[in-house]
Amino acid sequence: MENAFFTLQEFMTHTKAVAYLLMAGALIGLPLFWLFLTGRDDKKRTF
Amino acid sequence: MQQISASLKNAAKPSVWTPFNIVAGIIIAVGLVLTVIRFTGGLGAVTNLDHNTPWGLWIGFDLMCGVALAAGGYMTSAACYIFGLKRFHTAVRPAILTAFLGYALVVLALHYDVGRPWRLPYPIFYSQGTSSLLFEVGLCVFLYLTVLFIEFTPAALEWLGLKRARNLVVKLVLVLTIFGVILSTLHQSSLGALYLIAPSKLHPLWYSSYLALFFFVSSMFAGLSMVIFESTLSHRFLHHKMDAHHVEQSGDVALGFAKAASFIMMGYLFMQMIGLAVDNDWHYLATGWGAWYLVEMIGFVALPAFFFAVGVREKRPGLIRWTALWAVLGIVLNRLNVSLVAFNWQLPMDQRYFPSWMEVVITLFIVTLGVVAYRFIATRMPILYEHPDYREQQEE
Fold this sequence. Notes:
The complex is a heterodimer of chains A (47) and B (396).
Chain A: H1 8-38
Chain B: H1 2-12, H2 19-41, H3 43-46, H4 57-69, H5 72-82, H6 89-114, H7 122-126, H8 133-160, H9 163-170, H10 173-193, H11 211-237, H12 244-279, H13 288-313, H14 317-341, H15 357-378, H16 391-395
Protein backbone atom coordinates (compact mmCIF):
# COMPACT_ATOMS: atom_id res chain seq x y z
CA MET A 1 0.00 0.00 0.00
CA GLU A 2 1.50 3.31 -1.07
CA ASN A 3 1.67 5.99 1.59
CA ALA A 4 -0.14 9.24 0.90
CA PHE A 5 2.11 12.24 1.38
CA PHE A 6 0.62 15.70 1.50
CA THR A 7 3.80 17.71 1.93
CA LEU A 8 7.44 17.36 0.93
CA GLN A 9 8.22 17.40 4.65
CA GLU A 10 6.17 14.23 5.16
CA PHE A 11 7.79 12.54 2.17
CA MET A 12 11.32 13.41 3.32
CA THR A 13 10.61 12.37 6.90
CA HIS A 14 9.35 9.01 5.74
CA THR A 15 12.05 8.25 3.16
CA LYS A 16 14.89 9.53 5.36
CA ALA A 17 13.64 7.40 8.24
CA VAL A 18 13.64 4.27 6.07
CA ALA A 19 17.08 5.16 4.67
CA TYR A 20 18.48 5.58 8.20
CA LEU A 21 17.00 2.24 9.27
CA LEU A 22 18.62 0.62 6.22
CA MET A 23 21.93 2.27 7.09
CA ALA A 24 21.69 0.83 10.60
CA GLY A 25 20.94 -2.55 9.02
CA ALA A 26 23.99 -2.18 6.76
CA LEU A 27 26.22 -1.20 9.68
CA ILE A 28 25.24 -4.39 11.46
CA GLY A 29 24.76 -6.65 8.43
CA LEU A 30 27.96 -5.93 6.52
CA PRO A 31 30.37 -6.67 9.43
CA LEU A 32 28.42 -9.88 10.08
CA PHE A 33 28.74 -10.80 6.41
CA TRP A 34 32.47 -10.03 6.61
CA LEU A 35 32.76 -12.40 9.56
CA PHE A 36 30.93 -15.07 7.53
CA LEU A 37 33.20 -14.40 4.55
CA THR A 38 36.45 -14.60 6.48
CA GLY A 39 35.30 -17.09 9.15
CA ARG A 40 37.48 -19.91 7.89
CA ASP A 41 40.54 -17.89 6.87
CA ASP A 42 43.86 -19.05 8.25
CA LYS A 43 44.51 -17.13 11.45
CA LYS A 44 47.43 -14.72 11.20
CA ARG A 45 50.01 -15.23 13.97
CA THR A 46 50.39 -11.98 15.87
CA PHE A 47 53.13 -13.13 18.23
CA MET B 1 61.72 -40.49 -48.58
CA GLN B 2 60.59 -37.02 -49.62
CA GLN B 3 56.97 -38.12 -49.27
CA ILE B 4 57.61 -39.35 -45.72
CA SER B 5 59.31 -36.13 -44.62
CA ALA B 6 56.52 -34.07 -46.21
CA SER B 7 53.85 -36.09 -44.39
CA LEU B 8 55.82 -35.75 -41.11
CA LYS B 9 55.94 -31.99 -41.60
CA ASN B 10 52.19 -31.90 -42.20
CA ALA B 11 51.59 -34.01 -39.11
CA ALA B 12 53.66 -31.64 -36.93
CA LYS B 13 51.94 -28.54 -38.27
CA PRO B 14 48.61 -27.95 -36.52
CA SER B 15 45.65 -27.64 -38.84
CA VAL B 16 44.16 -24.19 -39.43
CA TRP B 17 40.69 -25.74 -39.76
CA THR B 18 39.91 -26.01 -36.07
CA PRO B 19 36.27 -25.57 -34.92
CA PHE B 20 37.23 -22.27 -33.25
CA ASN B 21 38.85 -20.89 -36.40
CA ILE B 22 35.95 -21.95 -38.62
CA VAL B 23 33.27 -20.41 -36.40
CA ALA B 24 35.32 -17.25 -35.78
CA GLY B 25 36.08 -16.98 -39.51
CA ILE B 26 32.39 -17.21 -40.46
CA ILE B 27 31.38 -14.59 -37.86
CA ILE B 28 34.15 -12.23 -38.99
CA ALA B 29 33.27 -12.68 -42.68
CA VAL B 30 29.57 -11.93 -42.08
CA GLY B 31 30.53 -9.06 -39.76
CA LEU B 32 32.70 -7.49 -42.47
CA VAL B 33 29.84 -7.65 -44.98
CA LEU B 34 27.47 -6.03 -42.44
CA THR B 35 30.13 -3.39 -41.71
CA VAL B 36 30.13 -2.39 -45.37
CA ILE B 37 26.31 -2.22 -45.34
CA ARG B 38 26.33 -0.14 -42.13
CA PHE B 39 28.84 2.43 -43.39
CA THR B 40 27.34 2.71 -46.87
CA GLY B 41 23.63 2.43 -46.05
CA GLY B 42 23.55 4.18 -42.67
CA LEU B 43 22.00 3.12 -39.34
CA GLY B 44 18.60 2.42 -40.92
CA ALA B 45 20.07 -0.28 -43.16
CA VAL B 46 21.12 -2.55 -40.29
CA THR B 47 19.43 -1.41 -37.05
CA ASN B 48 15.96 -1.11 -35.55
CA LEU B 49 16.87 2.19 -33.88
CA ASP B 50 14.31 4.98 -33.97
CA HIS B 51 13.64 8.35 -32.38
CA ASN B 52 12.34 6.70 -29.20
CA THR B 53 15.43 4.52 -28.83
CA PRO B 54 18.46 6.13 -30.42
CA TRP B 55 20.83 3.97 -28.35
CA GLY B 56 20.44 0.26 -28.94
CA LEU B 57 22.38 -2.94 -28.49
CA TRP B 58 25.71 -1.45 -29.55
CA ILE B 59 25.57 1.07 -26.72
CA GLY B 60 23.74 -1.17 -24.21
CA PHE B 61 25.95 -4.21 -24.65
CA ASP B 62 29.15 -3.33 -26.51
CA LEU B 63 29.77 -0.06 -24.69
CA MET B 64 28.06 -0.34 -21.31
CA CYS B 65 28.95 -3.99 -20.67
CA GLY B 66 32.33 -3.67 -22.38
CA VAL B 67 33.44 -0.82 -20.12
CA ALA B 68 32.08 -2.47 -16.95
CA LEU B 69 33.70 -5.83 -17.66
CA ALA B 70 37.00 -4.16 -18.57
CA ALA B 71 37.17 -2.77 -15.03
CA GLY B 72 39.36 -5.72 -14.07
CA GLY B 73 42.32 -3.73 -15.43
CA TYR B 74 42.18 -0.94 -12.89
CA MET B 75 41.02 -3.23 -10.04
CA THR B 76 43.88 -5.69 -10.50
CA SER B 77 46.62 -3.13 -11.04
CA ALA B 78 45.35 -1.07 -8.07
CA ALA B 79 45.34 -4.18 -5.85
CA CYS B 80 48.86 -5.10 -6.91
CA TYR B 81 50.67 -1.76 -7.23
CA ILE B 82 48.73 0.64 -4.95
CA PHE B 83 47.61 -1.71 -2.16
CA GLY B 84 50.77 -3.81 -2.44
CA LEU B 85 48.98 -7.17 -2.79
CA LYS B 86 51.82 -8.71 -4.79
CA ARG B 87 50.29 -12.18 -4.64
CA PHE B 88 47.92 -11.00 -7.38
CA HIS B 89 50.80 -10.03 -9.68
CA THR B 90 50.20 -12.95 -12.04
CA ALA B 91 46.68 -11.64 -12.74
CA VAL B 92 47.84 -8.15 -13.76
CA ARG B 93 48.90 -8.77 -17.36
CA PRO B 94 45.87 -10.86 -18.39
CA ALA B 95 43.60 -8.25 -16.74
CA ILE B 96 45.37 -5.34 -18.44
CA LEU B 97 45.21 -7.12 -21.80
CA THR B 98 41.49 -7.87 -21.33
CA ALA B 99 40.85 -4.24 -20.37
CA PHE B 100 42.91 -2.87 -23.26
CA LEU B 101 41.12 -5.05 -25.81
CA GLY B 102 37.78 -4.32 -24.12
CA TYR B 103 38.23 -0.56 -24.38
CA ALA B 104 39.63 -0.77 -27.92
CA LEU B 105 36.53 -2.71 -28.97
CA VAL B 106 34.29 -0.23 -27.14
CA VAL B 107 35.77 2.50 -29.35
CA LEU B 108 35.32 0.28 -32.42
CA ALA B 109 31.67 -0.40 -31.49
CA LEU B 110 31.13 3.32 -30.98
CA HIS B 111 32.11 3.89 -34.60
CA TYR B 112 29.23 1.67 -35.73
CA ASP B 113 26.78 3.68 -33.66
CA VAL B 114 28.14 7.16 -34.30
CA GLY B 115 29.34 6.78 -37.90
CA ARG B 116 31.81 9.01 -39.75
CA PRO B 117 34.89 7.52 -38.05
CA TRP B 118 37.20 10.27 -39.33
CA ARG B 119 35.42 12.63 -36.94
CA LEU B 120 36.32 10.62 -33.84
CA PRO B 121 38.94 13.16 -32.62
CA TYR B 122 36.49 16.08 -32.97
CA PRO B 123 35.02 16.00 -29.42
CA ILE B 124 38.51 15.98 -27.92
CA PHE B 125 40.49 18.32 -30.19
CA TYR B 126 38.06 20.37 -32.25
CA SER B 127 34.77 21.09 -30.50
CA GLN B 128 34.69 20.21 -26.80
CA GLY B 129 31.23 19.96 -25.28
CA THR B 130 32.46 20.60 -21.77
CA SER B 131 28.98 20.77 -20.28
CA SER B 132 28.16 17.24 -21.47
CA LEU B 133 28.72 14.00 -19.59
CA LEU B 134 29.40 12.38 -22.95
CA PHE B 135 32.42 14.66 -23.36
CA GLU B 136 33.72 13.50 -19.99
CA VAL B 137 33.14 9.84 -20.91
CA GLY B 138 34.81 10.36 -24.30
CA LEU B 139 37.82 12.13 -22.82
CA CYS B 140 38.27 9.51 -20.08
CA VAL B 141 37.95 6.59 -22.49
CA PHE B 142 40.44 8.25 -24.86
CA LEU B 143 42.93 8.84 -22.02
CA TYR B 144 42.36 5.50 -20.32
CA LEU B 145 42.77 3.57 -23.57
CA THR B 146 46.12 5.34 -23.98
CA VAL B 147 47.06 4.44 -20.38
CA LEU B 148 46.06 0.80 -20.93
CA PHE B 149 48.07 0.67 -24.13
CA ILE B 150 51.18 1.92 -22.30
CA GLU B 151 50.52 -0.49 -19.41
CA PHE B 152 50.28 -3.34 -21.93
CA THR B 153 53.47 -2.44 -23.83
CA PRO B 154 55.99 -4.15 -21.47
CA ALA B 155 54.65 -7.54 -22.60
CA ALA B 156 54.99 -6.56 -26.27
CA LEU B 157 58.45 -5.04 -25.70
CA GLU B 158 59.65 -8.19 -23.90
CA TRP B 159 58.37 -10.23 -26.85
CA LEU B 160 60.22 -7.94 -29.27
CA GLY B 161 63.37 -8.02 -27.14
CA LEU B 162 63.49 -4.24 -26.60
CA LYS B 163 64.90 -4.29 -23.07
CA ARG B 164 65.65 -0.58 -22.59
CA ALA B 165 62.25 0.58 -23.76
CA ARG B 166 60.60 -2.08 -21.61
CA ASN B 167 62.53 -1.06 -18.49
CA LEU B 168 61.60 2.57 -19.11
CA VAL B 169 57.88 1.79 -19.32
CA VAL B 170 57.99 -0.44 -16.22
CA LYS B 171 59.20 2.57 -14.20
CA LEU B 172 55.93 4.34 -15.06
CA VAL B 173 53.71 1.56 -13.71
CA LEU B 174 52.69 3.25 -10.44
CA VAL B 175 51.89 6.59 -12.09
CA LEU B 176 49.90 4.84 -14.82
CA THR B 177 47.98 2.80 -12.26
CA ILE B 178 47.00 5.90 -10.26
CA PHE B 179 46.00 7.66 -13.47
CA GLY B 180 43.99 4.61 -14.54
CA VAL B 181 42.10 4.43 -11.23
CA ILE B 182 41.20 8.14 -11.40
CA LEU B 183 40.02 7.90 -15.01
CA SER B 184 38.02 4.74 -14.32
CA THR B 185 36.33 6.30 -11.29
CA LEU B 186 35.31 9.21 -13.49
CA HIS B 187 33.95 7.46 -16.56
CA GLN B 188 32.49 4.31 -14.98
CA SER B 189 30.26 6.54 -12.87
CA SER B 190 29.56 8.96 -15.73
CA LEU B 191 28.15 6.14 -17.85
CA GLY B 192 25.46 5.71 -15.21
CA ALA B 193 25.05 9.45 -14.83
CA LEU B 194 24.20 9.66 -18.55
CA TYR B 195 20.79 8.23 -17.71
CA LEU B 196 20.05 10.92 -15.13
CA ILE B 197 18.88 13.05 -18.05
CA ALA B 198 15.97 10.66 -18.72
CA PRO B 199 14.01 10.26 -15.47
CA SER B 200 10.72 9.95 -17.34
CA LYS B 201 12.02 7.26 -19.70
CA LEU B 202 13.83 4.90 -17.33
CA HIS B 203 11.69 2.81 -14.98
CA PRO B 204 11.81 4.17 -11.39
CA LEU B 205 13.24 0.91 -10.06
CA TRP B 206 16.35 1.41 -12.21
CA TYR B 207 16.36 5.19 -12.21
CA SER B 208 17.98 6.70 -9.15
CA SER B 209 19.92 9.81 -8.31
CA TYR B 210 22.60 7.31 -7.21
CA LEU B 211 22.94 5.80 -10.72
CA ALA B 212 26.50 7.07 -11.04
CA LEU B 213 27.43 5.39 -7.77
CA PHE B 214 25.68 2.15 -8.77
CA PHE B 215 27.58 1.99 -12.05
CA PHE B 216 30.92 2.65 -10.40
CA VAL B 217 30.47 0.18 -7.54
CA SER B 218 29.06 -2.51 -9.82
CA SER B 219 32.02 -2.04 -12.17
CA MET B 220 34.31 -3.07 -9.29
CA PHE B 221 32.81 -6.53 -8.84
CA ALA B 222 32.23 -6.79 -12.60
CA GLY B 223 35.96 -6.34 -13.16
CA LEU B 224 36.92 -8.78 -10.40
CA SER B 225 34.47 -11.41 -11.67
CA MET B 226 35.66 -10.91 -15.23
CA VAL B 227 39.30 -11.48 -14.19
CA ILE B 228 38.29 -14.78 -12.53
CA PHE B 229 36.20 -15.78 -15.57
CA GLU B 230 38.93 -14.84 -18.03
CA SER B 231 41.48 -16.79 -15.95
CA THR B 232 39.13 -19.81 -16.11
CA LEU B 233 39.02 -19.60 -19.90
CA SER B 234 42.81 -19.23 -20.06
CA HIS B 235 43.17 -22.32 -17.86
CA ARG B 236 40.86 -24.28 -20.11
CA PHE B 237 42.13 -23.20 -23.53
CA LEU B 238 45.62 -21.70 -23.05
CA HIS B 239 46.89 -23.95 -20.26
CA HIS B 240 49.98 -24.84 -22.32
CA LYS B 241 50.99 -21.17 -22.34
CA MET B 242 50.89 -20.81 -18.53
CA ASP B 243 54.01 -21.33 -16.44
CA ALA B 244 53.99 -23.20 -13.13
CA HIS B 245 53.91 -19.95 -11.12
CA HIS B 246 50.76 -18.72 -12.90
CA VAL B 247 49.02 -22.08 -12.50
CA GLU B 248 49.95 -22.19 -8.81
CA GLN B 249 48.81 -18.62 -8.13
CA SER B 250 45.51 -18.79 -10.03
CA GLY B 251 43.68 -20.43 -7.12
CA ASP B 252 44.85 -17.69 -4.72
CA VAL B 253 43.82 -15.00 -7.21
CA ALA B 254 40.35 -16.55 -7.55
CA LEU B 255 39.92 -16.77 -3.75
CA GLY B 256 41.16 -13.21 -3.11
CA PHE B 257 39.13 -11.64 -5.90
CA ALA B 258 36.00 -13.61 -4.99
CA LYS B 259 36.26 -12.38 -1.40
CA ALA B 260 36.48 -8.77 -2.54
CA ALA B 261 33.71 -9.20 -5.13
CA SER B 262 31.39 -10.86 -2.62
CA PHE B 263 31.74 -8.06 -0.06
CA ILE B 264 31.36 -5.30 -2.67
CA MET B 265 28.24 -7.03 -4.06
CA MET B 266 26.65 -7.06 -0.62
CA GLY B 267 27.48 -3.36 -0.22
CA TYR B 268 25.98 -2.72 -3.67
CA LEU B 269 22.81 -4.51 -2.61
CA PHE B 270 22.43 -2.21 0.40
CA MET B 271 23.04 0.82 -1.83
CA GLN B 272 20.29 -0.34 -4.18
CA MET B 273 17.93 -0.65 -1.22
CA ILE B 274 18.78 2.86 -0.09
CA GLY B 275 18.15 4.01 -3.67
CA LEU B 276 14.66 2.51 -3.43
CA ALA B 277 14.12 4.06 0.00
CA VAL B 278 15.02 7.66 -0.87
CA ASP B 279 12.65 7.67 -3.86
CA ASN B 280 10.05 5.58 -2.01
CA ASP B 281 9.84 3.12 -4.88
CA TRP B 282 8.94 0.07 -2.78
CA HIS B 283 5.42 -0.27 -4.20
CA TYR B 284 6.84 -0.96 -7.68
CA LEU B 285 8.28 -4.22 -6.32
CA ALA B 286 4.77 -5.70 -6.35
CA THR B 287 4.46 -5.20 -10.13
CA GLY B 288 5.82 -7.24 -13.06
CA TRP B 289 8.72 -4.80 -13.38
CA GLY B 290 9.36 -5.34 -9.66
CA ALA B 291 9.62 -9.09 -10.22
CA TRP B 292 12.17 -8.49 -12.99
CA TYR B 293 14.10 -6.09 -10.71
CA LEU B 294 14.12 -8.72 -7.95
CA VAL B 295 15.38 -11.34 -10.44
CA GLU B 296 18.32 -9.01 -11.12
CA MET B 297 18.99 -8.08 -7.49
CA ILE B 298 18.44 -11.44 -5.82
CA GLY B 299 19.22 -13.79 -8.69
CA PHE B 300 22.25 -11.97 -10.08
CA VAL B 301 23.66 -9.99 -7.12
CA ALA B 302 22.67 -11.50 -3.75
CA LEU B 303 23.00 -15.16 -4.77
CA PRO B 304 26.36 -14.79 -6.57
CA ALA B 305 27.64 -12.82 -3.54
CA PHE B 306 26.55 -15.66 -1.27
CA PHE B 307 28.09 -18.36 -3.48
CA PHE B 308 31.33 -16.37 -3.78
CA ALA B 309 31.37 -16.28 0.04
CA VAL B 310 30.74 -20.04 0.29
CA GLY B 311 33.48 -20.65 -2.30
CA VAL B 312 35.91 -18.51 -0.27
CA ARG B 313 34.98 -20.13 3.06
CA GLU B 314 35.29 -23.65 1.73
CA LYS B 315 38.21 -22.81 -0.57
CA ARG B 316 36.47 -24.15 -3.65
CA PRO B 317 37.92 -22.45 -6.76
CA GLY B 318 35.55 -24.47 -8.99
CA LEU B 319 32.47 -22.94 -7.33
CA ILE B 320 34.08 -19.48 -7.50
CA ARG B 321 34.77 -19.83 -11.22
CA TRP B 322 31.16 -20.74 -12.02
CA THR B 323 29.92 -17.95 -9.78
CA ALA B 324 32.20 -15.49 -11.62
CA LEU B 325 30.39 -16.33 -14.88
CA TRP B 326 27.10 -15.85 -13.03
CA ALA B 327 28.16 -12.41 -11.75
CA VAL B 328 29.37 -11.39 -15.22
CA LEU B 329 25.94 -12.33 -16.63
CA GLY B 330 24.38 -10.28 -13.82
CA ILE B 331 26.32 -7.19 -14.88
CA VAL B 332 25.29 -7.72 -18.50
CA LEU B 333 21.67 -8.01 -17.33
CA ASN B 334 21.95 -4.82 -15.27
CA ARG B 335 23.42 -2.76 -18.09
CA LEU B 336 20.87 -4.10 -20.59
CA ASN B 337 18.05 -3.40 -18.13
CA VAL B 338 19.13 0.21 -17.67
CA SER B 339 19.87 0.93 -21.32
CA LEU B 340 17.24 -1.17 -23.13
CA VAL B 341 14.75 -3.24 -21.12
CA ALA B 342 13.58 -0.69 -18.56
CA PHE B 343 14.20 2.23 -20.92
CA ASN B 344 11.01 3.55 -22.56
CA TRP B 345 9.13 1.10 -20.33
CA GLN B 346 5.90 3.05 -20.67
CA LEU B 347 5.74 2.73 -24.47
CA PRO B 348 3.39 0.15 -26.04
CA MET B 349 5.14 -3.04 -27.10
CA ASP B 350 4.90 -2.31 -30.83
CA GLN B 351 6.90 0.89 -30.30
CA ARG B 352 9.56 -0.76 -28.13
CA TYR B 353 13.04 -1.43 -29.49
CA PHE B 354 14.27 -4.91 -30.22
CA PRO B 355 17.65 -5.30 -31.95
CA SER B 356 17.72 -6.55 -35.52
CA TRP B 357 19.65 -9.74 -36.33
CA MET B 358 22.29 -7.58 -38.03
CA GLU B 359 22.91 -5.60 -34.84
CA VAL B 360 23.31 -8.87 -32.94
CA VAL B 361 25.73 -10.25 -35.55
CA ILE B 362 27.83 -7.07 -35.48
CA THR B 363 27.99 -7.34 -31.69
CA LEU B 364 29.06 -10.99 -32.04
CA PHE B 365 31.60 -9.89 -34.65
CA ILE B 366 33.13 -7.36 -32.24
CA VAL B 367 33.27 -9.86 -29.36
CA THR B 368 34.85 -12.43 -31.70
CA LEU B 369 37.49 -9.90 -32.75
CA GLY B 370 38.33 -9.47 -29.05
CA VAL B 371 38.64 -13.19 -28.43
CA VAL B 372 40.79 -13.70 -31.54
CA ALA B 373 43.04 -10.76 -30.61
CA TYR B 374 43.40 -12.04 -27.01
CA ARG B 375 44.30 -15.49 -28.27
CA PHE B 376 46.77 -14.10 -30.81
CA ILE B 377 48.54 -12.00 -28.15
CA ALA B 378 48.41 -14.53 -25.29
CA THR B 379 49.90 -17.29 -27.45
CA ARG B 380 52.83 -15.10 -28.47
CA MET B 381 53.63 -12.58 -25.73
CA PRO B 382 54.46 -13.17 -22.05
CA ILE B 383 50.93 -12.66 -20.71
CA LEU B 384 50.30 -15.97 -18.96
CA TYR B 385 53.95 -16.67 -18.17
CA GLU B 386 56.94 -14.64 -17.04
CA HIS B 387 59.57 -13.92 -19.64
CA PRO B 388 62.74 -15.77 -18.53
CA ASP B 389 64.90 -12.63 -18.94
CA TYR B 390 62.79 -10.63 -16.44
CA ARG B 391 61.71 -13.27 -13.97
CA GLU B 392 63.77 -11.92 -11.04
CA GLN B 393 62.61 -8.32 -11.62
CA GLN B 394 58.96 -9.36 -11.60
CA GLU B 395 59.32 -11.29 -8.39
CA GLU B 396 60.61 -8.21 -6.56
